[in-house]
């Protein structure tokens, strides 16, 4: 099998704990089924700041750009609360997304049957849930200029962030959403706030035009993003694919995470455009959760979001669809066996730590 270059960025807090389980899985796949993964590892976030004074070094950025895929853990934590804004841990992740042009962030929210009773919502609301949030990841208020704090000179300051979207950005992200919908239930819901934002008016217009021109076979609905948040907890099964901007996507995916039982369950893939010649996409895979400083170092973090992010990597970067399916099935099987990390624990189930959960999934996957 051809060599597959993975660049690992475990990051801070529970990032390295969750990544350790994926590293074991990668070694096992190389050993048992000759998967041909070659890994290299770098620093991102607070640990990179401690080592280099930057949230990611230029050398590690170059490695990320050259890899077939990047696996990312999590960044941030109270230790770095006071570092300058430009080099805060989160800046490393934002640089990776922007410089690698990872404009399409796929955040699936699936409620595994075994967890239907452990969501904070009623079982009938989440049972069988399978939705996909497609979040625009390189534009909007995250990157728009100006972005600054101005001293007004009268004892007041003004904080400014700018929401900006150009036609091509909305066209390409809605294209991704429509294409993916065709492989699912053929239904896209676009969320913006056209009632208060000019960028929302343009978003709505461009999604509508893209639909009419290229994807008229897909069912398209529009929803105001605040109402979308409400509908996600009222009756999430009305959705198939949700396409939305960077900030709304960030918030709506955290809401969706709780439908699955825990934020420790939600994986994601951040993809660039296919290269014209090689057709290969730059890609980074990361759990939706953060560095969870409150539980870091305790060995209790749920590694499933990280492991499921690796399953997305197998599927989208290496076309290893059978292996991805098998890994997702292994996660479901371990949950069916009653194994639970603390965040998804319910009565009668067996509590396990990060390492035991990882081991059990790997054993099922290889078994
Ligand atoms: N992609 C990323 O690296 C990323 C994403 C979100 C937040 N962050 C950063 O992480 C830091 C903490 O942010 P936060 O507390 O708002 O969000 P968080 O996701 O780190 O934690 C929120 C809550 O969920 C729990 N949790 C998260 N992941 C879990 C897991 N795998 N297993 C069990 N419980 C889990 C945490 O213990 C915490 O109670 C901040 O610095 C933030 O900027 C980073
Ligand atoms: C850590 C932060 C920059 C990031 C974001 O806001 O995009 C995170 O919340 C996420 O959801 O990936
Ligand atoms: Mg977030």
UniProtKB/TrEMBL annotation:
Main location: cytoplasm
Pathway terms, separated by semicolons: Amino-acid biosynthesis; L-leucine biosynthesis; L-leucine from 3-methyl-2-oxobutanoate: step 3/4
Annotated site residues (Important for catalysis) in this chain: 142, 193
Binding positions for Mg(2+) per the UniProt entry: 226, 250, 254
Highest taxon, organism lineage: Bacteria
Note on cofactor: Binds 1 Mg(2+) or Mn(2+) ion per subunit.
Catalyses which reaction(s): (2R,3S)-3-isopropylmalate + NAD(+) = 4-methyl-2-oxopentanoate + CO2 + NADH
Keyword Iron-sulfur: no
A cellular component term, taken from the record's GO annotations: cytosol
Functional description taken from the UniProt entry: Catalyzes the oxidation of 3-carboxy-2-hydroxy-4-methylpentanoate (3-isopropylmalate) to 3-carboxy-4-methyl-2-oxopentanoate. The product decarboxylates to 4-methyl-2 oxopentanoate.
Name of the featured protein: 3-isopropylmalate dehydrogenase
Gene for this chain: leuB
């Amino acid at each position: 099998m051809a060599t597959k270059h993975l660049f690992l960025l475990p990051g801070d807090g529970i990032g390295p704990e969750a990544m350790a389980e994926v590293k074991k899985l990668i070694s096992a796949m190389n050993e048992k089924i000759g998967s041909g993964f070659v890994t290299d590892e770098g620093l991102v976030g607070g640990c990179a700041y401690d080592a280099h004074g930057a949230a990611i070094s230029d050398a590690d950025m170059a490695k990320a750009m050259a890899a077939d895929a990047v696996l990312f853990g999590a960044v941030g934590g109270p230790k770095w609360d006071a570092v300058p804004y430009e080099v805060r841990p989160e800046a490393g992740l934002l640089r990776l997304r922007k410089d690698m042009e990872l404009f399409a962030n796929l955040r699936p929210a699936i409620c595994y049957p075994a967890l239907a009773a452990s969501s904070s919502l009623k079982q009938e609301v989440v049972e069988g849930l399978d939705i996909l949030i497609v979040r625009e990841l390189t534009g909007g208020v995250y990157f728009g200029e100006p972005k600054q704090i101005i001293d007004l000179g009268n004892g007041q300051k003004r904080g400014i962030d700018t929401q900006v979207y150009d036609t091509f950005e909305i066209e390409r992200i809605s294209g991704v959403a429509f294409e993916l919908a065709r492989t699912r239930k053929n239904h896209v819901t676009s969320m913006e706030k056209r009632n208060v934002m000019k960028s929302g008016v343009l978003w709505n217009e461009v999604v509508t035009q893209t639909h009419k021109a290229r994807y008229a076979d897909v069912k398209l609905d529009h929803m105001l993003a605040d109402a979308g948040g409400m509908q996600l907890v009222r009756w999430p099964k009305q959705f198939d694919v949700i396409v939305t901007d960077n900030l709304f996507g960030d918030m709506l995916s955290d809401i969706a995470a709780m439908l699955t039982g825990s934020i420790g369950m939600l994986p994601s893939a951040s993809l660039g455009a296919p290269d014209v010649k090689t057709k290969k996409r730059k890609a980074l895979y990361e759990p939706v959760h953060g560095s969870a400083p409150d539980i870091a170092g305790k060995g209790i973090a749920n590694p499933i979001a990280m492991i499921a992010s690796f399953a997305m990597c197998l599927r989208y970067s290496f076309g290893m669809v059978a292996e991805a399916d098998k890994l997702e099935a292994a996660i479901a099987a371990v949950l069916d066996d009653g194994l639970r990390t603390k965040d998804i624990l319910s009565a009668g189930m067996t509590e396990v730590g990060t390492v035991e959960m990882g081991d059990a999934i790997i054993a099922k996957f290889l078994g």
